[in-house]
Amino acid sequence: MNLTLHRLGGFGVLALAVALLAAACGGNGDDAGPTGEGDSLRGAELLLYSGRNQNLVQPALDAFEEQTGIKVKVRYASSAAIAATILEEGRNSPADVVLLQDAGALGALAGEGVLDRLDDELLGRVDAKFRSPEGLWVGTSGRARTVIYNTEAIDPETDLPDSILGFTDPKWKGRIGWAPTNGSFQAFVTALRVQLGEEGARAWLKGVKANKPKAFSSNTPIVAAVEAGEIDVGFVNHYYLHRFLDERGEGFKARNYYYTGGDPGALVNVAGVGILRSSDAKAAARRFIDYMLGVDAQTYFATQTHEFPLAANVPSPEGVPSLQQLDPPDIDLSNLADLRGTLDLLRDVGILN
User: Fold this and answer.
1) Pairing of strands 97-100, 45-50
2) Which of 23, 241, 248, 301 would staple 63 via disulfide (CB 3.0–4.6 Å)?
3) What confidence tens digit (pLDDT) does each residue in 136-173 have?
4) Number of Cβ atoms within 10 Å of the Cβ of 146
5) What residue ranges define each of the domains in the chain, with the CATH number in brackets?
6) What are the b/e assignments for 189-216, b being 16+ CB within 10 Å?
């Protein structure tokens, strides 16, 4: 099964301003949060380790501070670097909350016992497939893997294979773009290993490699290359297209193709949040997660970063399928923690040095 959907509606700067204003006025409708602390937490401080880009999340952090009076100090780095730092710091970590780009990195921390179990009320706001089975982290927003295609070269209904696995067909030789060094692609390969087994993932990688795909450093240049006609298709996260559409308009000659129905190409990975077991500011940390799962933050992710909202009944923006329509593979996202095994496989197949 598949979905071909086009434009992501967005409200731009105006929507963000409205969201921030609503937040400043108590936009969630209950400034007390799930544990009823209310004004008692004003003046509290949190140290957040963020694996999410500052440009993406800082507006939401600013709105949280404005609404709650809780000061957030942030250390930014890659999700992998933050996970490694926390594991090195152990019980001496000064961090209170961790916000990471990838469920695999969160799963790695959960597996080492450094995260505290979250309240059932918070966990219950997000579908079970997008949170830790042990309740140690919860997803805040989602991103789908898609095939980006050139609209002048490809008819998605007749030209694209029925599954992501079909790109091993020799007819795709020289027509594909991928980013083997990119974390999102590596997370996809990890999910492929979980779903198909080691040999199934190896066979797909070898088959696509035989088609001589063009390698890129990240998702953005893949989308640009598809639109320019340098390649016909590429493997990316869904929201990169919508950044181009916001800048270039509907005439941009590339669109997303979504696999569905549990296909390996329908993977939805999540950014998520957890509380450090060693934190001495857990009430404020819980209030932070409450905000991140509330209407204001979820609307921000949907309209500004073009991600899937996972809570607060905030709908997917216009032109993007719902998570129910996507029906991603039924896998435990915590199992995406085995990045080392994926890197070993990519090197063994000759895709990475």
Assistant:
1) parallel
2) 23
3) 999 999 999 999 999 999 999 999 999 999 999 999 99
4) 27
5) 2-142+269-320 (3.40.190.10), 144-267+336-349 (3.40.190.10)
6) bbbbbbbbeeeebbebbebbbebebbeb
